[in-house]
Design a protein that fits this description.
This protein has 14 helices and 12 strands. The chain is of the alpha/beta class. It folds into 2 domains: about 200 residues, inorganic pyrophosphatase (n-terminal core) (Alpha-Beta Complex), CATH 3.90.1640; about 130 residues, Diaminopimelate Epimerase, Chain A, domain 1, CATH 3.10.310.30. The two termini are about 35 Å apart. It binds guanosine-5'-monophosphate and manganese (II) ion.
């Protein structure tokens, strides 16, 4: 976003209107934290604000302040479309291309509302009038904090906003350990704590709500972990039958891919999760150092994201997807053996 646009944005924000705030499909902590954080901020200006998520999200995010007001496009499509059609302003948060909003993309595209993108993913599309894109940022939540600061409104951050933004920064930085975590990130976090975010409480709500069956599923995932030492790569598979066996619920596999990356000398980790209902294999990719899983996913698996964390998908069977993955890897021998 260019500095000269800030006065325009201030005028927009100062005029009460109908606003929709949208996270990406399969929203994560940063997506829900940033949308709900912005929701609370916009409410202080007496806007009519609605958060519409493209589809449902994990239970471990459903305690965020005002979570109950979130609409789900997939299950409340008519109501959501009516609200989108009426909106004058649409914020899209934590994604870089409209197709990342899933089935909601078309409604967003067709809407005549002024669009504002706040996002930290690589290669942003150019669909919004106002684009605040910064791939060096730890999280969209840190950017929402900056956005509020740019508008001169840090004093409007109450405990609800602080809690939402803290949550997204914490989840997107792997609890402040990924290289995207800067001293500025910690300064923002410190300020959010001063303004009412309860760090230990938030951590417990996100991480200490395991079900027994999720831990059993983690056990199976670890048994399925394979290592290709010469390419410093590790990968995990989970079939639909295995997910069913352990009573899989949305969010249960969150974080599993990181175990592969925790192996000594491994710099590239993947997890392949079969989704029979959608007829796809969902892929999560993580790396350490300069090997770009964003590029890897864009080139081979219809996805993208960041240098060290990306997602993708395959319409082949689980077995064929793994075969493809293994056959591609040697092309990256130089980068992976560094
Ligand atoms: P995850 O593996 O947790 O689904 O995604 C890792 C990161 O990549 C997240 O920041 C997520 O938003 C992003 N991501 C996941 N799938 C896609 C995709 O298909 N396209 C793009 N551009 N980013 C993705
Ligand atoms: Mn994010």
């Amino acid at each position: 976003m260019i500095k000269t646009q800030i006065p325009e944005l201030k005028t927009l924000i100062n005029t009460p209107q109908d606003i929709v705030v949208v996270p990406h499909k399969n929203p994560d902590g940063d997506a829900m934290g940033s949308t709900l954080g912005l929701f609370h901020y916009l409410k202080t200006y007496n806007h009519q604000v609605t958060v519409i998520a493209p589809n449902d999200y994990p239970d471990f995010l459903k305690w965020l302040p005002e979570n109950d007001s979130v609409l789900i496009f997939e299950s409340q499509q008519d109501q959501c479309e009516a609200i989108i059609n009426k909106a004058q302003l649409i914020f899209t948060l934590d994604f870089n291309a409209l197709h990342r909003a899933g089935d909601m993309a078309l409604s967003l595209e067709q809407s005549s509302a002024t669009k504002i993108m706040i996002d930290h993913h690589q290669q942003p599309d150019d669909y919004a009038k106002y684009i605040y894109s910064d791939v060096s940022m730890s999280s969209t939540c840190e950017m929402v904090y900056n956005f509020i600061e740019m508008l001169g409104d840090l004093d409007k951050i109450d405990s609800a906003i602080a809690t939402c933004l803290y949550t997204g920064i914490m989840t997107d930085t792997g609890s402040f350990r990924f290289p995207s975590t800067t001293s500025r990130t910690h300064e923002v976090i410190a300020d959010l704590m001063k303004r009412g975010a309860k760090n230990s409480d938030i951590h417990n709500k996100i991480h200490d709500t395991n079900s027994y069956s999720r831990l059993q599923l983690l056990g199976r995932a670890m048994q399925n972990l394979k290592v290709i030492p010469e390419l410093r790569t590790a990968y995990i598979t989970l079939s639909q039958a295995e997910l069913d066996e352990f009573n899989f619920k949305k969010g249960d596999t969150e974080g599993f891919v990181n175990y592969g990356l925790s192996l000594k000398d491994i710099i590239f980790a993947a997890i392949f999760i079969e989704n029979q209902q959608e007829g796809i294999v969902k892929i999560s990719l993580r790396s350490k150092g300069t090997f770009s899983v964003n590029e890897f996913s864009r080139a081979h698996f219809n996805g993208g994201g960041h240098t060290n964390a990306a997602g993708g998908r395959s319409e082949d069977s689980l077995e064929a997807t793994i075969e493809k993955f293994i056959s591609i890897l040697p092309q990256y021998k130089n980068e992976l053996s560094q």
